[in-house]
Amino acid sequence: MIRGVFVALLLIALACDSLPGKPTDADRFVAPEAILDFDTLYAQNCSGCHGAEGRFGSARPLNDPLYLAIAPDSAIQTAIGAGIDGTPMPAFAIDEGGMLTDAQVTALLHGLRANWGTSTGSRGLPAYHATQAGNAARGATAFGVFCAECHGADGRGGEHGGSVVDSSFLALVSDQGLRSAVIAGREDLGMPGYAGYVEGRAMSEREIADVVAWLIAQRARYPGQPHAATAPPAAREGTH
């Protein structure tokens, strides 16, 4: 009899677990601050600008082993947490006005490395931060050698690349963003990295710094198109 009661209770318990409408573990509510899954965090916070798979977004690709090889953890973590002043990159850390905990910012950093990084390290690659001051005059010459074929001799665009001296573009990209673009390129858009502009000749540290200095020198002091002046309406004849 006892055994029969036990079996009946067991069947009732199993039946409860299969009731229609009962949520599965995957359907249960998870507090936003408890989410540490990289795919979820990336989709919710990063994919809108950097692309669903880390490519083909309006911002630089994060699915880029070369960029991840040169960028130190501290730079990526700071960019995610505190944002980048003067650019569209916002701050995501709670302490900076965002919605992500420190653990979530770290989860994004580790997820980028694990999913899209490389284990080769940065040995032999250009430094992420400039190691020497660039010279804009020399940069004009270096730009002609490495960049003009795609972006035009004056940087205003060519057959294979758009303008890199557009005032709005230069107003919205940081100096470091320009350096990262020169080094890592935009492989998702067909722009190679520092070693692919001229066959058999990689850009040197000085040439990278000089091209970046030339690009910075092209920034307009007051970017944007001012409104055209409107002439006052002509005075009607006979009025004062």
Describe what this molecule looks like in 3D.
There is one protein chain. With 240 residues, the protein is mostly helical. The chain is built from 11 helices and no strands. The longest helix is centred in the N-terminal third of the chain and has 16 residues, at 2-17. It has helices at residues 2-17, 38-45, 47-50, 65-70, 73-82, 102-116, 136-146, 148-151, 167-172, 175-184, 205-217. Among the domains are: 32-116, Cytochrome Bc1 Complex, Chain D, domain 2; 136-217, Orthogonal Bundle (Cytochrome Bc1 Complex, Chain D, domain 2). Helix content is 43%, strand content 0%. Helix 5 (73-82) crosses helix 6 (102-116) and helix 10 (175-184) crosses helix 11 (205-217).
Task: Summarize the entry for a quick read.
With 240 residues, the chain is an all-alpha fold. The chain is built from eleven helices and no strands.
